[in-house]
Amino acid sequence: MPVLRRGDAVNGRGDTRTPTDRERAEWFDPDGRTGDRGLRFSCTMCGNCCSGPEGFVLVSDEEARALATRLGLPLAEFRERYTRIVPQGVSLTEVLSEVGNDCVFLDRRSVPGKALCGVYEDRPAQCRTWPFWPSVVRDRASWERHKRVCPGMDTGTLVPVDRVRILRDSFRI
Ligand code: SF4
Ligand code: SF4
User: Fold this and answer.
1) Whose alpha carbon is nearest atom 4 of ligand 2?
2) What's the pTM value of the predicted model, to 2 decimals?
3) Domain residues for 112?
């Protein structure tokens, strides 16, 4: 997820409010603009968040093991072929496409006009939690800004407040 995949402002680490205060302050419960208790999101498989300028997709040891198993590779070979070290940690590699720096697992061929995750069931937490990252859901203005890149935001399925909270709090970026 290039532009989006890339590290954005880290949010929340210094937040000393109690959970109750935080929950009360959440702008998406309910969203003042839509009235929804939660946020709508349905991926259109445009691939925007998996490509673009150079960025990173962090992969933990556990995630790397799962991906290596999926691909039938020894872990060391998986790391050698598909990961690289970045300032933020260990990232999946990228390949250049006509669009930009694609995640190495972005599949633009299987479905014409769509860009799919080639390792969807084993995609890293950074991908699983998009677009509910702390840096994205911190306020409506940030959500709106990221919508310019992700057409799935504010459309389709209503993700309830509690689920948004779980996703937001499970990956810091
Ligand atoms: S692992 Fe899948 S979802 Fe994550 S950036 Fe790569 S292609 Fe996109
Ligand atoms: S709709 Fe959003 S989440 Fe889905 S591929 Fe496009 S940018 Fe990524």
Assistant:
1) 43
2) 0.87
3) 2-170
